[in-house]
Amino acid sequence: MVFAHLLADPLSRFLAQVVVIIVVSRLLGVAMRRIGQPMVIAEISAGILLGPSFFGWLAPETAAALFAPDSLHILQMLAQIGLVLFMFLVGLELDPRQLRGRSHASVAISHTSIIVPFLLGVGVAYYIYPTYADPKVGFTAFALFMGAAMSITAFPVLARILAERRLLHTRIGAITTACAAVDDVTAWCILAFVVAVSRSSGIGGAITTTAVAVGYIAVMFFLVRPILVRMAARVESPDADGVSQNVVAAALVLVFVSSWTTETIGIHALFGAFLLGAVLPKQGGFARSLAGKLEDLVLIVFLPLFFAYSGLRTEIGLVQGAESWLVCGLIILAACTGKFGGSAVAARLTGLNWREASVVGILMNTRGLMELIVLNIGLDLGVISPVVFSMMVMMALFTTFITTSLVKWIYPPELMAAETLEPGDRLATTTPQPTSRPETVTPFRVMACISYEGAGRGLVTMAAALMQSEARARLYAVHLVPATNRGSAFVGEDDPPAGESVLEPALERATELGLETRVVSFVSSDPAQDLCDVAVQRKADLVLLGVHKPLFSQTLLGGVVHDLLSDMAPTVCVFVDRGIREVHRVLVPFQGSGHDRAALGLANRLMLHGGAEVTVLHVVRPRRSSSAPAGAGDLVDAVFAEGAGRVRMKVIEHQWPGEAALAESAAGYDLVVVGVGREWRLGDRRLGIGMQPEPLIHGCPTSLLVVRGPGARPARPA
To answer: What pTM, to 2 d.p., does this model score?
Structure first.
């Protein structure tokens, strides 16, 4: 077999393993993102697919050559190193400030969410011990481990889901984050005791191990932590070089020494790494910078190796027969009942309504990677059998997979937006607007979507031209921060507002123009949907989009811009900025479509509020009358009734309207306002918007405003 020959060398085999593992994980990650699932689901699934449950069944010879049993010890060692570093990052996430003002509710919910599933886990252990446990393992160790495994919550995955679902800065997010922090610490302390019991010959040895572990924890808090505080202060001082390589090396040495110590004590190396991360000071930027140095390598390389190693040990085929699958269902039921039920009831008793309490319960039921870490510890110690390991892996996958969907169902996006966006709006400038025009009952609202730093000034300039002289007009500067897959998200409540640096040029321009601007910024995993929700909640009359070439698209109206042009209810404008400073002369190509009429309406606003002169270019086909049809002239007169003196209508014959508009745009205009449509080659009935070349956009020498009229879909209820 040629493939086996290429893998004969241990280094070649290992490098091939790494390549396959990372590629499969990333490809599955793209697929999971499309259905709203966190990256951890893709990583767990990739591990199972590469194991005997799928790859070994589909191509046994290739799987045996690539993942030969004698090569797995290298994979195991690197996976263990990756877990040590990952647990250090998890410890870095834990911040005591998350408990501020919520200690009573958090402790009550978190301890209930540990006690109830722990007891249910012990009950399940009592039922399955005679059939599925190794006879050499005592019932006490087996039952304690099952209880501890049922009690785990995946704090890193939960933090990412909270950020992506925009729940982080709500009451639910604050309470759940604090609960997960308490839960993590308590569950890992319980697990440390369980490991001590499993490794000791008797209960006396376990108590001794636990006592030594408590002493080590005290040393870490009272001796090591002050040293770390001084190290952080020195790194953050103005004359320091920041987190240098020497600082990173010192931190890594401390991580490995702490892990070595806890492994020697008998409570597992991972606890030492977690403990060091927990005691490291979170104030300032030391912890964040240190995590930034380590995260990418750990999450992209080391963790997928761990998932693959776990997948190679997961044999779903071992779960055979109706009885085994009933036991697997019982484990899943007990896990969900304990975590969801315990957390939801406790949250309800602490003052949350049932909707909020249910979301807390669902989030606390997330297990993900943390569960796999615990299960691998149990399998390595021999406490659980491969069959139970496979059942518990399926439980971890199921409880994590359902989290995002259930949260979205119980707490729909529009309800989430209603709670999170209004309190989160920040007033960027309080400079009063000119009030030369009478105050209207309903203010004109413009939502400028700023995706990158260079787009802000132009979008604000365009918005000011449309609304500056109108009393009580409102501008919302919206920036969505892309959701990341980082395990150390550092998404605490007192973090600086998301996307502040990107919005800074826009806010500076708004201040120059005396334009009151409100900022809306949050983490988003679905930009198109979230922007639609913001538009509904802010009751936007007009949405302004910047433009840049989307990835994997040949058109400027593709990607997220295409989705918004297709789905958003209010008028949507895509602004192509070619250095606009002011708007004096405006060209409006016109053929009569609904989008063209929306373009006329915006040109009218530019005339009334920005003092612009407007030229309406009506293109007619050759061999027709060279005068404008009466209907078109009447429509233009009706739209520009208040400023007819600053509007002129130009009628020309041309076979291709888009080419006529492009030629006219070179006549010294500041802005071209054009509706989407096939006549301008900016859309097609069959292909849709953003699916074909856009010569008018690419060839226009001046700034361009592409308009899609209102009413693409009904606005969703708030």
So the answer is: 0.67
